[in-house]
Design a protein that fits this description.
Elements (H helix, E strand, L loop, with lengths): L4 H22 L5 E6 L2 E10 L10 E7 L10 E4 L30 H13 L7 H5 L14
Amino acid sequence: MTMPSEERHASRQKRRFQTELDRLAEVPTDFFSMETKQANPYAWVGTVKGPSHSPYAHGKYKTRIEFPQEYPRLPPKIKFETKIYHPCVDEEGSIALRALLLHEWSPVMTIGKLLLDVEVVLNDPETDNAVVERKKGYCCGAADGPGRV
């Protein structure tokens, strides 16, 4: 007896989530920590620490990652829940990352890589990727819509 495709997809997602968490645990970094709540594996919470040698060096920012049902075909959303003032972060905590634009996203992209991209943006803000530009419909130099984390 074969599983219905919806059950197979849920099973693959569960394995993918666990693999992602295992990989994050293996990454030797002080920059972030993430965990999932068993009640909702589609929502992860964690902390992102401000990169050293940046204005955010001693900050700790509560972060939330929300995965769509279609993950990994569609990108997750990453949001700072702790207030952070940064040219690429809007008032709701969403951050612009090129990797999260639909035309840039790839199912082989890992959450660890996305979090390292967050570190790069915090360390070296791209002024052409500022929130003001995103609100005009530009993000990461692309004119086809927001790439919000």
